[in-house]
Design brief:
The complex is a heterodimer of chains A (about 110) and B (about 120). Chain A has strands at about 5, 10-15, 20-25, 35-40, 45-50, 55, 60-65, 70-75, 85-90, 95-100, 100-105. Chain A is an all-beta fold and about 110 residues long. In chain A, the strands form two sheets. In chain A, strands 2, 4, 5, 6, 9, 10 and 11 form a seven-stranded mixed beta sheet that branches. A four-stranded antiparallel beta sheet of chain A has the order 1-3-8-7, with no helix packed on it. Chain B is mainly β and about 120 residues long. Chain B has no helices and eleven strands. Chain B has strands at about 5, 10, 20-25, 35-40, 45-50, 60, 70-75, 80-85, 90-100, 105, 110-115. In chain B, a hairpin with a 4-residue loop joins strand 7 (about 70-75) and strand 8. Chain B is globular and about 40 Å long. Classes of the chains: A mainly beta (about 110), B mainly beta (about 120). At the A-B interface, strand 4, strand 5, strand 9 and strand 10 of A face strand 5, strand 9 and strand 10 of B.
Chain lengths: ~110, ~120
């Protein structure tokens, strides 16, 4: 199975900061990667798919980049409502695998 | 609007069985793959199983292979997850989600399965 290594596991940043989360796959997955946001007690919500396409209705401050084995989720100008845990997910082949998650808090 | 609603969760003893259902509405069900993802209390997300739009392809995580079975009824827009020989480490909230060709874009609210004696 493809392993997804996500970092950092948690971060604390100020409102308005630029935040970067990275995800590395154990083998090349092309662009078959998504980023999901999960707030406490809620189901995950898709933010980004095929590595860099923002899901319809998603805030423009979220962006994704990368291909192959290295991927990045960037939150430009962190907002209080962005407090959540973020996961990457590879859908290149089965079994699909998630990163361990990154918990984002406000400093 | 797109809806996925899970049901069937509950408390079950180790070794017993449980069947989860995912009822959907608001989209062309027969065009979408459906997957199950679970989350143990306080832990991360784990993909469990997926079924293609036409039910020809079914895939499972190694942790559930041979114990869980996914199926779908395109006439009723529902997907089921039959879970047999349940173990304590199967305790989790189980989500169903739809996928067209990429990452799952709509998720249900989840149903909690607790395996305990």
């Amino acid at each position: 199975a493809i392993q997804m290594t996500q970092s950092p596991s948690s971060l604390s940043a100020s409102v308005g900061d630029r935040v970067t989360i990275t995800c590395r796959s154990s083998q090349g997955i092309g662009h078959d990667l998504g980023w999901l946001q999960q707030k406490p007690g809620k189901p995950p919500k898709l933010l980004i798919y095929v590595a860099s396409t923002v899901q319809g209705g998603g805030p423009s401050r979220f962006s994704g980049s990368g291909s192959g084995t290295d991927f990045t989720l960037t939150i430009n100008s962190l907002q209080p409502e962005d407090v959540a845990t973020y996961y990457c997910l590879q859908n290149y082949n089965f079994p699909w695998t998630f990163g361990q998650g990154t918990k984002v808090e406000i400093k | 609007q797109v809806q996925l609603v899970e049901s069937g969760g509950g408390v079950v003893q180790p070794g017993r069985s449980l069947r989860l259902s995912c009822a959907t509405s608001g989209f062309s069900f027969s065009n979408y793959a459906i997957l199950w993802v679970r989350q143990a209390p306080g832990k991360g997300l784990e993909w469990v199983a997926g079924i293609s739009y036409d039910a020809r392809n079914k895939n499972y995580a190694d942790s559930v292979k041979g114990r869980f079975a996914i199926s779908r009824d395109n006439s009723k827009s529902t997907v089921s997850l039959q879970m047999n020989n349940l173990r304590s480490d199967d305790t989790a909230t189980y989500y169903c989600a739809r996928s067209f060709t990429a990452s799952p874009d709509h998720w249900g609210q989840g149903t909690l399965v607790t395996v305990s004696s």
